[in-house]
Amino acid sequence: LKDKDRKTRTLEKIDVFSVIKADGTEEVLYTPDTVNGLSIEQVRNFIRGEQAAARFYNRQAHIGESAIVGVASSILIFYSLPAPMLNAVVLGRFTPKKMQIPDGYDLPYSTTEEYKIGYEKKARNIKIQQSIKWGYIGLGVGLAGLITYFSTGGE
C-alpha cells in the first residue's frame, strides 16, 4: 500500500482491546479491573457477541414501525420532532430474545453469558439507530407531504 492509500484512525487506548502487530503477534491492551471483574477471555467473548450481532442481526419490524410513527407524527408539525426519538427510546428498552446466528456459529463461545450479553447490547444499539434513522425519514416524508398538500390548496 502507498502511504496515501493507508487509512489511519486515532483511538483512545481505553477503547482498544488488543493490537495485532506486523509480525502477527497480539498485544492485549485490556487490563482486568476489580470493578467489573471480567477476565480477558470473558471480554473476548463479549466482543465476539458484539461482532456476531453486527454481522447477523437483521430484524426489520422496527424499521417499518418507526417510519409509520415518523409519518404519523408529522401532523404535529413543530411538536413532531421528538416523536421518532421517543419511539426509538421505547423500542430500545426491549432486548432481542433470541440470537440470530447460524446453528453452530462461533461454538463454543456463543454459549457463554458474556457472548449473549455482547450480542444483546449490539443488537439493541442497531435497533435504536435504525429506529431513529427511519423515524426521521418518515417524519421528513410526512412533512413534505403536508407541505405539498397545503401548498396546492389542500384539495
Walk me through what this model shows.
- With 155 residues, this protein is mainly alpha-helical.
- It has helices at 40-56, 61-73, 82-92, 113-151, and strands at 18-20, 26-28.
- A two-stranded antiparallel ribbon has the order 1-2.
- The protein is elongated and about 70 Å long.
Uncertain residue segments = none
Would you tell me the overall average pLDDT?
A: 82
What is the helix fraction of residues, given as a range? 40-55%
Query: The biggest beta sheet, please?
Result: 2 strands, antiparallel
Class of secondary structure makeup:
mainly alpha
Strand order of the largest sheet: 1-2
- The secondary-structure element order is EEHHHH
Number of helices, where a helix is a run of at least 4 consecutive DSSP H or I residues: 4
Q: Report how far the terminal alpha carbons are from each other.
A: 61 Å
